[in-house]
Amino acid sequence: xxxxxxxxxxxxxxxxxxxxxxxxxxxxxxxxxxxxxxxxxxxxxxxxxxxxxxxxxxxxxxxxxxxxxxxxxxxxxxxxxxxxxxxxxxxxxxxxxxxxxxxxxxxxxxxxxxxxxxxxxxxxxxxxxxxxxxxxxxxxxxxxxxxxxxxxxxxxxxxxxxxxxxxxxxxxxxxxxxxxxxxxxxxxxxxxxxxxxxxxxxxxxxxxxxxxxxxxxxxxxxxxxxxxxxxxxxxxxxxxxxxxxxxxxxxxxxxxxxxxxxxxxxxxxxxxxxxxxxxxxxxxxxxxxxxxxxxxxxxxxxxxxxxxxxxxxxxxxxxxxxxxxxxxxxxxxxxxxxxxxxxxxxxxxxxxxxxxxxxxxxxxxxxxxxxx
Length: 372
Ligand SMILES: Cc1ncc(COP(=O)(O)O)c(C=O)c1O
Description:
Layout: H1 7-15, E1 21-22, H2 33-38, H3 44-50, H4 65-72, E2 83-87, H5 88-100, E3 106-111, H6 116-124, E4 127-132, H7 143-149, E5 154-160, H8 172-184, E6 188-192, H9 206-209, E7 213-218, E8 230-234, H10 237-250, H11 256-267, H12 269-293, E9 297-299, E10 308-312, H13 318-329, E11 331-332, E12 334-335, E13 344-347, H14 353-367
Helix pairs in contact: 4-11, 5-6, 5-10, 12-14
């Protein structure tokens, strides 16, 4: 099974540890263990003391009952029987595609998007068609174009809502329309929802509105806990049952401590979202102000999610530019080419405020070399 290199992950693996100022990441500033536990007054000592005799066996294979119950409560129409724990949303996407897509199937994906959502189907031997998001249309998905690409043998439509890297959102009305189109040919709709928005916006999970809808998600982005590697897949009980077979081959469990930390996070969801809404709103304003003052950059503003995609007006290839920028200033971005969209760069603006301000200042200083 051959597969293309994963542009964004390859770039980050290579360069993130070299960055002095990292404004490339798409998570909202990660919690320390202490910050996470302190959300409800629990101390690190208390947490581990209470778990001192916890057996480090495999624990709950599909995720604990409490984990599943808390995750199910994030949806309008789901219960524990609709949830399986996975190793992050990457594990959830892999599971859903591996279980449902076969060689020769027709799959449709948006572009740009998280590469996993179209490279894994391709690697399985599916025929993948793309619907391109157009910057001049605010990176929106053209529903008529999508409709035109659906075939009688379309097996799956893979979406990323909100979208990485652009940060734009498919609203409830769009998803209802997509579900209706998919229903006509019995296609699955897989939506990677790790960037559920933290502001206004009529967001709905596909698993709540479509019987063949599969929502994948995790605690990595909106919940600021990429390091605990806990995600999930949410879908109908029938599709969940189908997934179990494939899941047994691809993972056993998420790990007992990670499950416990995930429960702690989900119980403290309100406090986490309060913290993160503030970070997103304040940092987005900083980013927008900077774009207004920076003549070589334009931006379709993200919809209160932690990834943004700037357009660079420079006479240099984006990848070379990002590498020079890193070497000369220590500032890390992700080049648009990693998302198959050259002349752009991803700015992960939900890092620490001081880091964002410094990173944007250095980026502007660096861009001045093209004015001479
Ligand atoms: C759309 C999307 N899905 C999944 C992931 C990875 O998520 P996780 O850390 O939960 O595996 C990323 C990370 O950048 C992402 O952008």
